[in-house]
Amino acid sequence: MPELPTGTVTFLFTDIEGSTRVLHELGDSYAGVLAEHRRVLRDAFARHGGVEVDTQGDAFFVAFARASDAVAAAEEAQSALRDGPVSVRIGIHTGEPMVTEEGYVGMDVHRAARVMSAGYGGQVLVSEATRRLVDDSRPLRDLGPQRLKDMTAPEHIYQLGDTDFPPLKTLNQTNLPVAASPLVGREDELGELLALLEDGYRVVSVTGAGGSGKTRLALQAAAESVERFEHGVFWVPLAGLGDPQLVLPAVAQTLGVRDDLAAHLADRHALILLDNFEHLLDAAGEVSRLLAAAPNVKALVTSRSSLRIDGEREYPLDPLRDAEAVTLFLERARAAGRTLVPDATVAEICERLDRLPLAIELAAARVKLLAPAALLERLEQRLPLLTGGRRDAPERHRTLRATIAWSYELLADEPRRLFARLSVFAGSFSLEAAEEICQADLDALGALVELSLLKPVGDDRLLMLETISEYAGERLDEVGDGDAIRRRHAEFFLALAESANLTATSDGEMDHDSVSREQDNLRAALDWALAREELEVGLRLAIAAESFWSTASPMEGYRRVSAFLEQGRGRISGKLLADALRTCASTIYIVGEYERGTRYIEQSLDEYRRVGDERGIGHMLLRLAVEANRVGDRDRARALALESVESARRVGFRRGEPLALGVLATLECAENRPERGMELLERGAALAREIGFTWWEAVILSDLAFYALELGRAENAARWAAQALVLARRMGDRQRLVQGVALRAQAAAAAGDRELAGHLWGAIEAEEARGRVGQWEDYRDEFAVEFLSEASEEFERGREAGRQLTLDEAVEYALGGGDA
Q1: Closest listed residue to residue 608, CA positions, set 581, 588, 587
Q2: pLDDT averaged over the chain?
Q3: What whole-number distance in Å separates Cα of residue 238 and Cα of residue 245?
Q4: Do 127 and 246 lie in a common domain?
Q5: 3-state DSSP helix/strand/coil percent for the chain, to nearest 5?
Q6: Residue 199 lies in a domain
Q7: Of 1, 61, 94, 794, which cross-links 53 as Cys (Cβ 3.0–4.6 Å)?
Q8: What is the count of structural domains for the chain?
Q9: In a shared domain, residues 298 and 350
Q10: What is the pTM of this model?
Q11: pLDDT per residue as tens digits for the range 333-372
Q12: Where in the sequence is the domain holding 586, given as residue range(s)?
């Protein structure tokens, strides 16, 4: 074989699309077709200096010293195959791999293969790294950033030529997390896991010791399965939950479902990845019942033990194979700044670590200071090898714990103390939180990151993996200030939640994002407060997240507040009790339990009156006005809303007036006075804008667009719908975004632009297929009936194109009037 290019190398991967189908279609003639396909490709690659690295079946892996040669070879190959019986997809990526006796080693090889797998037969895809090295004369079409199935950060992808193909086969439409690096090894296990998901098993549980790579393998299997599940693949991280009752609410929150999860999933074909289930096994029965109600939904579970439910297939995960373990060690050592070669010492290190991925990562992080021989010597003192036989899962877990302990003991005093304190966090955390709660300094944090005891996630957040966090938590009390750290954690997140202005009687800009981002830490703080009977801290925190509970997880919010009320029965009174009852009303009412919600409203109002809280009184009067309007008592609704306005003005509750104006406007429109109703809505929108009440301004603007359409004012409706969309995008409110796109589509239809209307409606249908969109389903049928009753060729053409859009793209399209 010719010598492999070194230094900067461009990799080219090929694959025949639908090769199994082609084999069946061509029968005995397939062998000759395959031979001709290989001849054509080899001729094109050789003419441009390509070196064949590997070939498997119908696939090629070729290396080029120059990116331009790889692109030219791909162009020539596709041209020669264009009219043939097979269709080939090609992916090209450039990097700086290591060269060993076995060939190329490095993540760039994996990435090149992933670029290829995103495409279609006849298509050539090129990475950003390759594009930068190719002259501008090549016709490269920008396909934008794409999340490839290796799950790492998005890769900017380009297409050679201007032929139209379907959307790339990428992860852009999932909530699967971005991985730090591609999966190393595990090809056989991945194939076996995918086969189990294709079989009749409803639940596939990947089990094994902590640190064995269960989550990474399951995430990769989920990524590979995206095209097989019509209604989506959803990752539900459970490590931050402490209560089995929160498992199904976490699933519902991930899917955007606020009421009946089973009904939502009943006719959907989806995969739900329940990650880190071992501490929530009491919820296994609920998972089983959910799947029984949803026959086309499957669950992929990671856990240290199986769920023991009907339809489950356990998949015990063994450690890495010898060569895979060595490759992982070399990759992580390279990331730490040291290039090593595979040798007996590295192999011995991996064996000493039971070939557990997390243990290998922790050890490899030390090679910056310790040569492999010195590293092995230290490990030998802590981890004597078994003389024979295989280790079982408990023994492997002891190996991992010993590796973590070894890393911990090598830390200096300050990083060691910080390591223990950081266990107080559930899930990821911000630098600010680490500094304030744990007195962290950047040097100590940097040391923990460098040693793989912490992982950066996003721009300014960090994460301690669950297995490591367990060990750190055991050390927390040893440092002598565990109770103080836990209290500071609760108080920090109480302050954060209260500053987000998410209660019904708050003023100021609402900050849903900060509370949503920290929801695992809020739950941990609430669990601590309930366990320690810290009633005031816990109840204030549960109340502060009122709007978060209402929009994301209403029944969880209700249970949280109720638990503190029950614990503090007879000891909670005054404004705190009134606020708690109001939060119960908010969470119960929004899921449709109107009678119980109204009882809470009345109890809260009584308590506010008892303490003379005018702001609370005014708001609960408005709640009663909404209920009166719901049951058709418009006179009472109007009287209560007007009383609420007067109350808000008296006490300077700035949100109160625009809220009440919205209710009064609804009453005017219901009584056939739309002009007066719209006048009130415009006043309410102006007031909401003035005080930064963004959420309510978006609601009112949507109402204005709706009533403008009722009056045949398409231009005004389009303007108000666009303004509502801008605000909803700023807040990240998926429900409001979908509603805004629908209103913009209606405005387009009313103006005679049926193709734009179809385009936007198709995008909404695609978004609905990805998961339920809150209360949108309560009124989406009204939109659907109107659109589908007026379907035309132009509408259907736009609708088909719109189904290829993401929600973000649909919003851009709506705001650009179809030009985006």
Answers
A1: 581
A2: 87
A3: 12
A4: no
A5: 60, 10, 30
A6: yes
A7: 61
A8: 6
A9: no
A10: 0.73
A11: 888 888 888 889 999 999 888 888 888 888 888 888 889 9
A12: 497-700
